[in-house]
From TrEMBL:
CDD domains: PAP2_BcrC_like (cd03385). GO terms for molecular function: undecaprenyl-diphosphatase activity. This is Undecaprenyl-diphosphatase. It comes from Bacillus swezeyi. It comes from the Bacteria.
């Protein structure tokens, strides 16, 4: 069996679940299309905790996503394929999407680059973020807009980017300096008696 055939077979196995278990399609549609907005709200909530550790985690997460997205654009220029619904018959398509290069999956890059970074910060509870990232990746296949290879590549780029940032960003003093400057100004405008002085290290 060729790689292309395997990619299609795995896609069919997941995408056909939407035909067999159609009652789950609304939930999958929400995961695939709107979870990113809930996720963005989660980042804001972490930021509003006003703890240095959480804020560094958010900053690192954003940096991780930017790096992974750049790598994704480079990968997409080297390899490309259209969405499954544009290439295959009888696809369970839940999302309207323009036909373009679907490799790698941008949604998967977003979730894995940040969720894996969160996991590195909070290993005891961070696995919940990994479950969310995995669920979003599967939802993009179930919805008919990505092949498994698109999602796997996005996940790999996200994980590698998160590891790189987690290992290197703490060595960049200017990030802590800029955050400290921001928090100093914030404290003057919005004083908080419970402001944490927790400093981020490798966890």
């Amino acid at each position: 069996m060729s790689f292309s055939e395997l990619n299609i077979d795995v896609f069919r196995a997941i995408n056909d679940l939407g035909k067999e278990y159609s009652m789950f399609n609304p939930a999958v549609y929400f995961l695939a299309e709107y979870m990113m907005y809930i996720f963005a709200l989660g980042l804001v909530v972490y930021w509003l905790t006003r703890t240095t550790k959480n804020r560094l985690m958010v900053i690192y997460g954003v940096i991780s996503f930017v790096i992974a997205e750049i790598l994704g654009k480079i990968a997409g220029s080297l390899y490309s394929n259209y969405q499954p619904f544009a290439e295959l018959p009888h696809v369970n398509q839940l999302i309207e999407h323009e036909i373009d290069n679907s490799f790698p999956s941008d949604h998967t890059i977003l979730f894995f680059s940040i969720c894996f970074l969160f996991f590195l910060f909070y290993k005891k509870t961070g696995w919940l973020w990994l479950v969310l990232a995995f669920a979003v990746g599967v939802s993009r296949i179930w919805s008919g807009v990505h092949y498994p290879f698109d999602v796997a590549a996005g996940a790999l780029l996200g994980v590698l980017s998160a590891l790189f940032v987690f290992w290197t960003a703490p060595k960049l003093a200017f990030i802590n300096q800029l955050l400290a400057l921001y928090e100093k100004g914030e404290q003057r405008i919005f004083p908080s008696k419970n402001k944490s002085n927790d400093k981020s290290k490798n966890f």
